[in-house]
Amino acid sequence: MPAIQLSVAERKAHRAEAHHLVPVVMIGNDGLTAAVKKETDAALSAHGLIKVRVLGDDREQREAIYQQLCDGLNAAPIQHIGKLLVLWRPKPVKTKAEDEDRKAGPREFKVVKNSSRGGQRPEVKRVRVLGNQRLTSGGNVRKAKPKQKSVKKTRAG
Hints:
By secondary structure, the protein is an alpha+beta fold. The protein folds into two domains: 8-88, Translation Initiation Factor IF3 (2-Layer Sandwich), CATH 3.30.110; 103-139, no CATH class. The protein has helices spanning 8-18, 34-47, 59-73, 151-156; strands at residues 25-27, 49-54, 76-81, 84-88, 107-113, 123-129, 133-135, 141-143. The longest helix has 15 residues, at 59-73.
C-alpha cells in the first residue's frame, strides 16, 4: 500500500499538533521488526498522530525505516527530525455497540468545596456516582428520585 499523500498545509497543521507529543514507539538496534510494526499500527489506530523514536546513528537506515513504516501501514509521513519520526493516519470510525439493555455506568466527578476558614485552599474530592444516583449542588450523592408518572395515563391504563 502506498503512503497517504498530504498537501503542504495539511502536513504543517499535523506538525503543529505533534509538537507536544512524546514518542509512543521506540525502534531499537534490531531495526524494524514485526513487533514494532504491530505496535506502530496499534498506536496509529488509537491516536492517529504519533511520534516514533529510532535509536541508531545511521541516517540512511532511519530514512529507510520511515519509508517502510509509511508504505507498510498506509500512513502519511509528516516530519523527520533527527531520530524522531512523525506519522499520521486517519483514525478508524468506532462503531457503537447497539445494546438496549445496557445502562449508563458509574461516572466520576470532581467536587470542589470552599473552606469554611477564609484564605484556605478549597477541598477537592473525587466522587463516584452510579446510574441510580445523582449529585446535588452541595456535592452530596443522593439516590435518584423515581420518574414521575402521569395521573391521567395511570387512570386510563
